[in-house]
Specification:
CATH topology of the largest domain: TIM Barrel
CATH class of the largest domain: Alpha Beta
CATH superfamily of the largest domain: Phosphoenolpyruvate-binding domains
Shape: elongated
Number of strands: 22
Number of helices: 27
Distance between the termini: 78 Å
Strand content: 15-25%
Largest sheet: 8 strands, mixed
Helix content: 40-55%
Radius of gyration: 31 Å
Length: 757
């Protein structure tokens, strides 16, 4: 029988659209769908298999096979032709199915009569949700048009599965694969446990209108959107500040290649001609490509999948601007867990803090700024959770464990209960730490340790009293700039600093001057593209080249602290001369304010952040020039060990408790003692009991950390004999022959002396 293949799929899709609008029970709807497909494709059999959570493909509807086998015929993933299609996510087109090595005979179906076989995966976001099959008695090879038509229909079925309509048909105790619990293992970056619901940082454009009424109109929309996308990519590549876009040039070049790929465009046009809207065509081709690429073993090619995904999402957003509607943003859930491939620190600050329960990243490293900001906000973080964005659906229940780096999507009841118990236990521990708030941080042998907290926003300040911190050892002034849409004026900065000093209630606050550049992007401040931004134009280098910016900030700080004490520290000092230059600018501002009768701080302390190794050969000059020195351990470690803290492959390669870094830190502490200059340390090291213990052992008596870390660190130091630890540590650091890791030595000391880590 010859039929008009050009109109076949379109007629079929129209009929299926009418069916999906009718008020039918799910089983009846499926039964009528398979009848329509069989009749349209002149097939004697049409069957739908749906994947269950236990990895079994169950027959949900059939036309042409034994009706008694519906919901009883089953094939495991990878078993038989249907299982092979689901496992490979590839169509299978056979003229003689029985002769295929994967053929599995199911006597209950009665399919031995049929020879030709065409099966396509039912895909959504690259995941196989089931298989759609047509069969004929006669041996024939199905045409490319028929394969295309069946794949288009499979997309409609995927939406049916995703909508949850088929849940009613599942047997008691069974779940569909789409709703199955998934555990993704990542890296623990921020301590704590978060229970909540998924919010995708880059939400998918939800395509609601799948079927088109006008092929030419949809082809034109696709052409316009592709043209616009290509111009946008070319524009991004031609700009000097590509790196400020948060994209790497190589990625953009890959985008450009994909955007001009004729094969990809041809597939999209073909899907539109078969009856899909431009958006549905993009989603279908994206899903098929992703399904194929997810099964690749080559890491480079798998990485390209991300590029392709990003491109397809950009195209969907372009189309959404051409008349289709992106899904309306729902209200932000009360218990939100944000899931992203990667994001900037400023983007995190855009979310309502009160509703945030956790952050999951596919990329990132423990010392990247986004992680530091998240920890400062007191939310658990899991990084390197590969593939989590594709597996998660908006609104899914999710648990993140910042202790062992696990993400539980759609957790089972028992997992949920176990974590609720874990949260209650942590709350009890926090209560114990809170009980230590008023206890003086004095070691067993009578050494007083100053415990301070890091902050950067007004929302952080209530934690000053809650944590029992002595003061703020590092106030990151750049966060005010990162969350603002325009440059904060002098008066706005002054009001902000005044509010910080007021809320600190007499406790000391150390303000770090503006540290922007590197990965801390300020939207309104365009800088040139840099090969190595962490080593480039940032922090004090930028501020000295823009003295107006620095002077405005210094004036705002001086005015805000009128009549009280003020501590200012300068980030990323490389040469002592920079300290002298900033001091001269500070002096000018002091003279200016006194000339106009403004009240000045009654005490002004001026210090440097030691983050650049060049200062190690200028320690005595630095101490003479500064009232205090603060070691920025994150950047100092990054520069001393030549490891990019944003690169997960190397960021954990070397231990900050290794001999080289501990000796370096010891030299700084000794220089402070020699010059009678207070030395403090703020960074990741201060916030972990074991590394805080090491710092105390090599001479540090003041540290600054995230508020949540103060309780555990205080509990550790109360049982610590610093004198004994110092003797043991110094001996180990001076021993050039020993190969025992310092971390192991510290753990052994803690165990022997019963110190809680």
């Amino acid at each position: 029988m010859v039929r008009d293949l050009a109109h076949g799929p379109r007629i079929l899709l129209r009929r299926l659209r009418e069916l999906s609008a009718e008020p039918l029970e799910p089983q009846e709807r499926l039964d009528r769908i398979v009848v329509q497909i069989a009749s349209n494709m002149v097939a004697e059999v049409c069957s739908v298999y749906v994947l269950r959570a236990d990895g079994v493909l169950e027959l949900y509807a059939t036309e042409g096979l034994n009706k008694e086998s519906v919901h009883t015929a089953q094939l495991k993933m990878g078993e038989g032709l249907v299982g092979t299609i689901a496992a490979s996510a590839q169509p299978l087109n056979l003229s003689d199915a029985q002769s295929h090595p994967a053929f599995a005979y199911l006597p209950e179906t009665g399919e031995e009569l049929f020879h030709s076989f065409l099966g396509v995966p039912i895909l959504r976001a690259g995941r196989a949700l089931g298989v759609l099959v047509v069969q004929n008695r006669a041996q024939r090879h199905y045409s490319d048009d028929e394969v295309e038509a069946l794949e288009t229909v499979a997309m409609l079925l995927a939406e049916m599965v995703a909508s949850g309509e088929l849940k009613k048909l599942t047997k008691p105790g069974q779940e569909l694969d789409l709703t199955r619990p998934v555990m993704v293992a990542g890296e623990a970056y921020g301590d704590g446990i978060g229970l909540g619901y998924v919010v995708l940082h880059d939400p998918r454009v939800v395509v609601t209108n799948l079927l088109n009424d006008d092929v030419e109109f949809e082809l034109n929309r696709l052409g316009e959107a592709l043209g616009s996308l290509r111009i946008h990519i070319d524009d991004m590549l031609s700009r000097r500040e590509v790196s400020m876009e948060g994209e790497h040039r190589a990625v953009l070049e890959a985008y450009r290649m994909f955007a001009h790929d004729r094969g990809w465009v041809r597939k999209l046009e073909e899907a539109i001609r078969n009856g899909l809207t431009a958006e549905a065509a993009v989603e279908r081709v994206q899903s098929e490509t992703r399904a194929r690429m997810m099964r690749l073993t080559d890491p480079y090619l798998r990485e390209r999948m991300h590029d392709f995904d990003d491109l397809a999402n950009r195209l969907l957003r372009q189309l959404a601007g051409f008349g289709a509607h992106a899904a309306a943003a729902d209200t932000f859930p009360n218990d939100a867990i944000v899931i992203a491939r990667a994001m900037g620190a400023a983007e995190l600050l855009d979310y309502p803090r009160a509703n945030l329960r956790g952050l999951v990243l596919e990329e990132g490293a423990v010392t990247s700024h986004i992680v530091i900001v998240a920890k400062a906000m007191g939310i658990p973080v899991v990084g390197q959770a590969t593939g989590v964005v594709a597996l998660a659906e908006k609104g899914d229940a999710v648990i993140i464990d910042g202790e062992d780096g696990k993400v539980h999507l759609r957790p089972a009841q028992d997992v949920q209960k176990a974590y609720e118990e874990k949260v209650r236990f942590r709350a009890r521990r926090q209560e114990q730490f809170r009980a230590l708030r008023s206890v003086d941080p004095v070691t067993r042998d009578g050494k007083r340790i100053s415990l301070n907290m890091n902050a950067g926003l007004l929302v952080d300040l209530p934690q000053l009293a809650d944590s029992g911190a002595e003061g703020i050892g590092l106030f990151r002034t750049e966060l005010q700039f990162m969350i603002a849409s325009t440059m904060p004026k002098g008066e706005e900065q002054e009001a902000f600093y005044r509010s910080v000093i007021k809320q600190a209630g007499g406790r000391p606050v150390t303000f770090r001057t503006l540290d922007i550049g590197s990965d801390k992007v300020v939207p309104y401040f365009q800088a040139a593209k840099e090969e190595n931004p962490a080593l480039g134009w940032r922090a004090i280098r930028l501020a000295l080249d823009r003295p107006g910016l620095l002077r405005t900030q210094l004036r705002a700080l001086l005015k805000a602290a009128g009549g009280t004490e003020l501590k200012i520290m300068i980030p990323m000092v490389t040469e002592v001369e920079e300290m002298r230059q900033v001091r001269a600018l500070l002096q000018k501002e002091v003279l200016h304010l006194s000339k106009f009768g403004h009240p000045l701080p009654k005490k002004l302390q001026y210090g440097a952040m030691l983050e650049v190794p060049s200062l190690l050969w200028q320690l005595d000059e630095l101490m003479a020039e500064s009232d205090f020195v603060s070691v920025g351990s994150n950047d100092l470690f990054q520069f001393a060990m030549a490891v990019d803290r944003g690169n997960a492959r190397v960021s954990d390669r070397f231990d900050n408790l290794g001999k080289p870094f501990l000796r370096l830190l010891r030299d700084i502490a000794r220089a402070g003692e020699r010059n009678n200059t207070p030395v403090t340390l703020c960074g990741e090291m201060a916030g972990k009991p074991i590394s805080a213990m090491a710092l105390m052992g090599i001479g540090y008596r003041s540290v600054s950390m995230s508020p949540a870390a103060i309780g555990p660190v205080k509990a550790m130091l109360l049982g610590l004999d610093v004198g004994a630890l110092s003797r043991m540590l110094n001996e180990a650091l001076d021993d050039k022959a020993s190969t025992i890791p310092m971390r192991a030595i510290l753990k052994r000391f803690a165990e022997t002396h019963n110190i809680p880590l």
